[in-house]
Design brief:
Helices cover 4% and strands 38% of the residues. It has 907 residues and is mainly beta. It is globular.
């Protein structure tokens, strides 16, 4: 084996000389936390993957998120949550080094600590990031550019001397300087009980954002080792409470595929991405094992078959796999293509297309894909376990699906066509439903929903299965969002599994239910006192726990309960009835209205879970700009998008925030000039076909103005809300205009709530909570705004410029939002009434941090004022630990206090 190189300027390759090769053994790994555990609970549930068993404990409700850098991550809310570590064998002696590495996605909250020992920590505060010893000090760098995206941090803590600490960001060592106060080197020592997300000396400084892949090392990593740690990647663990011996199989029609065979894995991925969706799916009766299928789809259809699930490995070692198929086939294990055959038609009955992978004992994700071109399909997956002498077909006994006994069925109705796609991961089969021809799609509570028109033939139906049939269970729950648009008179069916469970409304809009159990074998209705709001979205949840039936409407507090016992059973003659939404399978009791987000569980939902369903089902905002920053300085990304999607903005000119917004602060534009504007990320709107644009505004300008301007190279009015005067408004989409007459002047110096929604080709404009009118758009093309082309304050006549001073926005804006679906009047009213208790504190007149720790003076550290209102301590006042560093103790006597002289700021 030989390694050659050709350095710059060299004329050819030569052997790499030994003089440039070096290796330094890395310091021992004390602990490493991937944050990928299947679930967090009590003590020790944050696993240490180093093998040293230094498991951590999640505190105060900290949660995991699937948005980690690799797989899951730890999501910190900035209130009080953190991960507590203990018994780490770190060197606490003077001069010793400890390296801490982690990935960080910080949301920009000021004064937070991602990693902290007792008083030795990393601190993000005041525009800086670096080492702190609890003395208001910071040795580090600017934090500019660190918020809103992933960055790798490697920090070398040096005991006893902060100025010998080192910091790497994204693999590059930083030049550090003392940016705040002076360090207390006597506090600069690591300990065995660090915290992730704060420090331990006091409460506070809680990190907000996501942290992943946290490592602790005994000693200082080299630059090369930091780089190697940063570039470590790994597969995601298989988390499942109930593995079953069956693979999930789906087939897709690819008859429109233009190229005969995928040339490689990349082409295969393109094929899967293009055709592996609900629009091309169709069912099959083939066996759920990989042992050759024959020809179940005919001889001329072209299709794609995908098996997905897990393979169970009993003995760790190197496993070889081979694929053979007609026409193209590949196997993917733990996200890596192990073997693939992308050749032409015809199976070779051989095991020449092979690959190998090292597998630990346990479950590993497996995907097996086959593409048919002209029929006569055959596909086989072989393996050769460690110690085996030859390849054999992978047996069905090691192939599993991950089916958790949780959500059994879920229809979110986001697809198109006549299929209701079951997206639940907990069922034994994929319980796809069928929409009858008269069911239509439109705006739901979240994205799209379905409309049943009140006739006998308008409903969805799903075949009986182990997921929809509750017989033998003593617990289940069902939930749905329903918006009834009319009353049919008698038993308007919401859901029905004939002879087993049913929900309807009757006598106007009162709900009633039916449930067959071993103790209640007669099929009869139980009427409730709960009712639905007509022409509004309502969340309805039914639960059963073997002793009680409960019905909830719009949250956990509006409920009714009945004593009801027994195991769920089938009424005679209906053991295999189908599940319907919108009508019964026996008799004709159709419902008229909208349905969305139907879910079915094999357990009893808790009140907390029901409240979460009510509060969290509506779609989250794509962008949400509060304009609450204390000031803007024309820095990129300084205007924060609180949705978490990173659509941050930037101020230009003298645009700035000001007190007096609808909620907290607001954006002030062109108050004493005409050059101010704000640029926003066009990604918030690009690609949207349905949307809601929402903002509060306040202006006294009666001439031409606008609320938002989006421009592209093909249309400078790609997305525009323009007011020609104070009583008339135009919306522009793809350059086409729709006009609206306002019921009163909006140039009255008061706050007004504006919303513009589009669903399909129907747009509606709202002012102060009232719908003004709707218009039909001729184009339903996706919105496309060029980079730098989404702004407020100036109306563009070319992308990013060509401003007209007669069309500026002069006034205030607040609480601007974008949704990628059309909200209805109820949802808009909720947003119009929303509150926020956590307004930032900007520019106080007087501020005593009380961090002096000694002496008789409290220094006023308020910024932006002209008077220093220092206070004097009386002799009996004592210094002590405070909520943040030091504080003062007044002893309850008449002469124990701090006093500041009267001033224009204290008066």
């Amino acid at each position: 084996y030989y390694l050659y190189w050709q350095p710059p300027g060299a004329s050819g390759f030569v052997l790499v000389p030994a003089s440039v090769l070096s290796h330094q053994a890395p310091p021992p790994t004390i602990a490493f936390y991937r944050m990928d555990d299947c679930a967090w609970g009590g003590a020790g549930s944050v696993a240490d993957s180093s093998g040293n068993s230094n498991d951590g404990t999640p505190e105060n409700g900290i949660s995991q998120t699937t948005l980690g850098k690799f797989c899951k991550g730890a999501s910190f809310d900035g209130n009080d949550d953190y991960v507590q570590l203990s018994d780490l064998s770190l060197d606490t002696s003077a001069g010793a080094d400890t390296t801490v590495t982690f990935w960080m996605n910080w949301d920009g909250k000021n004064s937070v600590m991602p990693i902290g020992f007792h008083e030795f920590d990393l601190w993000l505060t005041g525009g800086y990031f670096g080492f702190n010893t609890g003395s208001g000090d910071l040795y580090g760098i600017s934090s500019s550019g660190l918020s809103g995206s992933w960055h790798h941090v490697a920090a070398i803590f040096h005991n006893g001397n902060v100025h010998q600490c080192r910091l790497f960001i994204d693999g590059v060592e930083q030049s550090l300087s003392q940016l705040q106060s002076s360090p207390s080197n006597s506090r600069a020592y690591v300990d065995s009980t660090p915290r992730i997300g704060t420090w331990s000396v006091t409460n506070g400084y809680y990190f907000r954002g996501i942290i992943d892949e946290v490592g602790f090392y005994a000693g200082a990593l080299t630059a090369e080792q930091v780089y190697a740690v940063m570039n470590q990647a790994h597969g995601c663990p298989m988390c499942c409470n109930n593995f079953q011996q069956k693979l999930i199989r789906t087939t897709y029609d690819i008859s429109g595929y233009s190229a005969q065979y995928p040339a490689n894995h990349g082409d295969y991925e393109d094929l899967v991405n293009q055709y592996g969706d609900a629009a091309h799916e169709f069912g099959s009766g083939m066996a759920d094992t990989i042992d050759g299928s024959g020809n179940p789809f005919g001889t001329s259809d072209r299709y794609l078959t995908i098996f997905e699930g897990a393979i169970k490995i009993d003995t760790a070692g190197t496993y070889q796999f081979a694929v053979d198929g007609d026409d193209a086939v590949e196997v993917i294990i733990d996200g890596t293509v192990i073997a693939g055959w992308y050749g032409g038609h015809g199976r070779c009955n051989c095991t020449t297309h092979t690959g190998a992978i090292d597998l630990d004992s346990g479950y590993h994700s497996l995907a097996f894909r086959q593409q048919d071109w002209t029929g006569g399909d055959n596909y086989y997956l072989y393996w050769q376990p460690p110690g085996a002498g030859s390849f054999t077909i992978v047996p069905a006994s090691v192939l599993y699906s991950c089916k958790q006994d949780d959500m059994l069925v879920h229809y979110n109705f986001e697809e198109t066509g006549s299929t209701a796609l079951d997206t639940a991961s907990g069922g034994t089969v994929q319980d796809n439903g069928i929409l009858t021809a008269s069911v239509t799609r439109g705006s739901g509570i979240c994205g799209s929903g379905i409309y049943v028109n009140g006739t006998s033939g308008s409903y969805t139906h799903t075949p009986d299965s182990a997921d929809t049939n509750m017989a033998g269970r003593d617990a289940f729950s069902a939930a749905i969002w329903v918006n009834p648009t009319g009353l049919q008179g008698d038993n308007d069916i919401i859901w029905n599994k004939e002879g087993q469970y049913e929900l309807a409304f009757i006598n106007g809009n009162h709900l009633e239910w039916a449930l067959t159990t071993s103790d209640h074998s007669n099929w009869y209705w139980v009427q409730s006192s709960l009712s639905l709001n007509l022409n509004r979205w309502n969340l309805v949840v039914f639960t059963y726990d073997g002793a009680h039936a409960r019905l909830y409407v719009n949250g956990s507090s509006n409920l009714q309960e009945w004593a009801y016992t027994g195991t769920i059973a089938n009424r005679g003659g209906y053991a295999t009835s189908e599940l319907r939404l919108g009508n019964r399978s026996s008799g004709n009791y159709p419902m008229k209205g909208w349905l969305d987000e139907f879910r079915l569980w094999g357990k009893t939902l808790t009140p907390t879970e029901i409240q979460d369903l009510f509060e969290n089902t509506p779609c989250n905002a794509e962008a949400d700009w509060h304009f609450d920053e204390c000031s803007w300085n024309a820095a990129a990304g300084e205007i924060l998008d609180s949705s978490g999607n990173g659509h941050n903005g930037q101020a230009h000119g003298n645009a700035d925030t000001a007190d007096g917004g609808v909620l907290c602060r607001g954006a002030g534009l062109n108050l004493s000039g005409n050059s101010d504007y704000i640029t926003l990320d066009p990604g918030a709107l690009n690609g949207a076909t349905d949307f809601s644009f929402i903002t509060w505004f306040k202006t006294s300008r009666t001439g031409g103005t606008h609320l938002i301007s989006g421009a592209s190279s093909s249309s400078d009015n790609e997305f525009l809300v323009y007011l020609g005067n104070d009583t008339h408004l135009n919306t522009y989409l793809h350059g086409s205009s729709a006009g609206y007459t306002l019921p009163y002047s909006i140039a009255n110096g008061n706050w007004h709530f504006f919303a513009w929604t589009l669903s399909g080709n129907t747009e509606t404009v709202y002012l102060d909570g009232t719908a003004l009118a709707s218009h039909t758009r001729s184009s339903t093309a996706p919105i496309q705004i060029d980079a730098g082309g989404l702004m407020v304050g100036q109306e563009q006549d070319c992308v990013g410029g060509c401003f007209d001073s007669g069309q500026i926005f002069s006034g205030y804006l607040d609480e601007m939002m974008v949704y990628r679906n059309a909200l209805d009047s109820t949802q808009l009213s909720s947003l119009m009434a929303r509150t926020r208790p956590d307004c930032p504190s900007c520019n106080p007149l007087v501020y005593y941090p009380m961090n002096e720790g000694s002496g008789t003076v409290l220094n006023d550290e308020a910024s932006g004022d002209s008077i220093s209102d220092n206070a004097t301590l009386t002799p009996s006042v004592q210094w002590d630990d405070g909520i943040c560093e030091s504080g003062i103790y007044v002893d309850g006597t008449s002469h124990s206090y701090a006093a500041a002289s009267d001033s224009t700021e204290t008066d």
